[in-house]
Structure prediction request, 215 residues.
Amino acid sequence: MIQAQAQLEDTSAEHRGRLLDGMARAVAANGYTETTIADIVREACVSRRTFYQHFATKAECLIALYEAASIAALNVLRDAIDPAHAWQTQAEQAMEAYLECLSRNPVLLRTLFIEIFGLGVEGLAARRRVNRQIANFMLNVVNTDRGKSGRSHLLSDELAMAVVGGVNELILQAIEQDRVTTLADLAGPAIRLLLATASEHSGAPPRGVIARVKK
Prediction:
């Protein structure tokens, strides 16, 4: 019985993953507004009944896709850093890895940065939750490193969220200008934004990395 239950759970997880992939492809092709549940299940190669076993509405499926993709991107950020390095170097590593990850997944970009707004308040709430997670990651990298060196924290909650918002706007602009394949080029300005914000908050000049970023 335990084995049968495990098989059912595996099948359910597989179907859910296929539905999320199907949603991503359908939205990329049609836009969220024009996408139907029939489009999603066709792309996912599952039945409409299977869709409703996992999601009550099309909007619920989009939010699930948004959150799953955002968690994957956040894991890329976490895996990219080496805590042995100064926070500036960690920030550079994380930003470059994050932008490279996004550029490799153009199908998801429209969902992550454009279509989510079509859900109104519910979509904005999901976006804010994700932005808060990224800001918390940023705070942990910057402030933990400064704590180890015996200095005061450099970044406040508000400034971390402001940096996340600024980076998102750079990405949105790149999407609108059809520069998705060159998102990595945004690493320089994005890192400079973080370094300048942290330095302004601390009253101390950034160390070392800023010289490399300016190249």
About this structure: DSSP finds ten helices and no strands in the chain.
